[in-house]
Write a structure and sequence with these properties.
The protein is 75% helix and 0% strand. The chain is mainly α. The chain has one domain: Amino acid/polyamine transporter I (Up-down Bundle), CATH 1.20.1740.10. The structure holds 4-fluoro-L-phenylalanine. The site of 4-fluoro-L-phenylalanine has 16 residues, from helix 3, helix 4, helix 7, helix 12 and helix 16.
């Protein structure tokens, strides 16, 4: 327990004594030290591979600007209400995922939402740690100054050679997962907290710098138009599903993450502003990542629909053409790894906390069991890039299936259940109480009505409409 509390301190840079007991079910429940602490916690979970790796390649596969506009619409109309609904459940109940529903709706079956969240986290972590492993490998390559020369073929071959091979990606996946598990078990080391606090803003600065370089490359014009001029002819119902799934994945919604963190938020924090700030930071970061990748993709003649390898092919090429690119590459992949770790730790924590609570396991044993499970599933994901590429379920490789099932299915179902629960099951008074801190916050009635309207009608209807479209496809 102590290790776990320390872990949070390390990751999120909050005063250790304020949360030492936050996962200790037997002790009095404590809370995050400050609103800033919880904001950094949520941003750490939200900003990760979803922004730097998944968003750019989905953008490339789904027609650019039109995808961005649909994505932004979903963040505002569906993502934000779901996030606030999760905040309401978490803070109201002061309990973790499954227990939160049991506490707010005793004797009902709503606890199943928590179980779905855990299953979703298992699927996500399985492929997330494979991509995290790619990040580790690329950091190693950057340190060896492997990105100082080469054209798009060189980097494309480098990536496909690596990702389709058997052992190296498996080792990297194992290392990434071990790092994640190690931090969850062992907790903080002095000084690392400071390092993390410096690295996240640095990641922002580096990505902004790369975006500027990318947008000023010769031949970047078509890439910039691709980002800012929507071509609606490319939009299909798949585009909507992909944009919605990405909004959920990037904001860490529908998988019980926000519920868990919100349960540590103090009663006097303004959850509306916390939710809005988290969503804004995550979205701005994704957009900057898009500006960093797309213009370079066009400038170097790479196909925007390249898929999951996109970032690993384009960025090394930008680095190879930049002054001091070799050094920037090291910083970038280090920061990417750190951003991935702060997210993967939060995903692992949801599963481990569930095992401890539901199966009364010890923390170390829970981490060990989950580690083995995720490593095996991750092996399947990794091999599906190479030797198992032809093994398909519903026409998808295992890697794609896990990604699709989590982001485009389970997270959306989780989100739907959450907004229905808050909008229709939980009493109106409870909801108002949480949003206004029991009337202590003077918020405009118009804002409150809009939020409730979004939670009760807009978000559920949008989610149901997307589901119906899919079934009819
Ligand atoms: N939001 C993270 C990212 O963009 O990389 C991924 C993620 C974290 C998904 C936590 C789900 C979750 F519960």
């Amino acid at each position: 327990m102590l290790a776990n509390a320390r872990l949070y301190c390390y990751i999120y840079g909050i005063q250790e004594k304020t949360i030492l007991t936050m996962t200790d079910q037997t002790a009095k429940r404590d809370s995050f030290g400050s609103s800033f602490g919880v904001l950094v916690a949520l941003a750490g979970s939200a900003v990760g591979l979803g922004n730097l790796w998944r968003f750019p390649y989905l953008l490339g596969q789904n027609g650019g600007a039109a995808f961005i506009l649909i994505y932004l619409g979903f963040v505002l109309l569906v993502g934000l209400p779901v996030m606030l609904a999760e905040f309401i459940i978490g803070r109201r109940s002061q309990a973790s995922a499954r227990a939160a529903f049991r506490k707010l709706a005793p004797g009902s079956r709503w606890g199943i939402t928590g179980v779905l969240g855990v299953i979703c986290c298992v699927l996500i972590l399985s492929f997330y740690s494979v991509v995290g492993g790619w990040g580790a490998e690329y950091l190693y390559k950057a340190v060896c100054f492997d990105f100082t020369t080469g054209d798009s073929n060189t980097f494309s071959n480098l990536f496909s050679g690596f990702s389709t091979s058997v052992w190296r990606p498996l080792i990297c996946h194992g290392i990434f997962l071990a790092l994640t598990a190690g931090i969850v078990i062992a907790g903080v080391k002095n000084g690392i907290e400071k390092f993390s606090k410096v690295m996240m803003p640095l990641l922002f600065l580096i990505v902004i710098g790369i975006a500027v370089r990318s947008m000023t490359l010769e031949g970047s014009g078509p890439g910039i138009s691709y980002l800012f001029k929507p071509d609606w002819s490319k939009v299909t119902s798949q585009t909507f599903l992909a944009a919605l799934g990405q909004a959920f994945f990037s904001l860490s919604l529908g998988a019980c993450m926000v519920i868990t963190y919100a349960s540590y938020v103090k009663k006097d924090a303004n959850i509306i502003s916390l939710g809005a700030q988290t969503a804004a930071a995550d979205t701005v970061f994704a957009l900057i990542a898009g500006c960093a990748i797309m213009p370079a993709v066009f400038a170097f003649g790479i196909a925007p629909g390249e898929g999951p390898g996109l970032v690993f092919i384009t960025l090394p090429q930008i680095f190879s053409q930049m002054p001091l690119g070799g050094v920037v590459a090291i910083f970038f992949f280090l920061a990417l790894l750190l951003a991935a770790l702060t997210s993967s730790i939060s995903i692992l924590e949801v599963i481990v906390a569930f095992c401890i609570e539901e199966f009364k396991m010890k923390r170390k044993a829970a981490v060990a069991v989950v580690f083995i499970l995720i490593w095996i599933l991750g092996v399947l994901c990794s091999l599906s890039m190479g030797p198992l590429a032809d093994f398909k379920i519903f026409g998808k490789t295992i890697f794609d299936l896990f990604d699709f099932l989590s982001a485009n299915f389970l997270m959306l179902i989780g989100g739907l259940l959450v907004v229905i629960f808050v909008g229709w099951r939980l009493g109106r008074k409870e909801v108002y109480d949480e949003l206004t801190n029991g009337g202590g916050l003077k918020l405009s009635p118009w804002l409150l009505k809009t939020i409730i309207f979004l939670i009760r009608f807009v978000a559920p209807l949008a989610l149901i409409a997307i589901a119906v479209f899919q079934i009819h496809e």
